[in-house]
């Protein structure tokens, strides 16, 4: 009989099994929803994550939701991940995508306005001719 113990798995299988765990999913969601480059450093991103997640998670679990818990999720060292934590992380990722979309939309509007000003100024060839429709 074939058993699926960790002893019977090759290193490749163990590595793949780690990528499929809730801990790995939570780690990925946390890093996507709270990117360190947006906050300047990892500690600031973890603090922002804790501030966002705490009101969403703490009422649904029986223990306090701490900054240390956020750090363990970020590092992928959490032994388990609650469903409430995964739901809150999915919500945080959705909010991050919305924020990034609006930021990019605003940036595109600024660039379009700058191109329109250049086209009206008539300095050199029209920049609008090089734009794709």
Uncertain stretches of 5 or more adjacent residues = none
Helix content: 55-70%
How far apart lie the N and C ends?
Answer: 63 Å
What proportion of the residues form beta strands (DSSP E)? under 5%
Question: Pairing-aware structural class of the strands and helices?
Answer: mainly alpha
How would you describe this structure to a colleague?
The chain is mainly α. The protein has helices at residues 11-19, 22-33, 36-39, 42-57, 67-75, 83-121. It is elongated. The longest helix is centred in the C-terminal third of the chain and has 39 residues, at 83-121.
Briefly say what this structure is:
This protein is mainly alpha-helical.
Summarize the helices and strands and which ones pair or pack.
Elements: H1 11-19, H2 22-33, H3 36-39, H4 42-57, H5 67-75, H6 83-121
Helix pairs in contact: 2-6, 4-5, 4-6
Descriptive labels:
single chain; 133 residues; mainly alpha; 6 helices; 0% strand; elongated
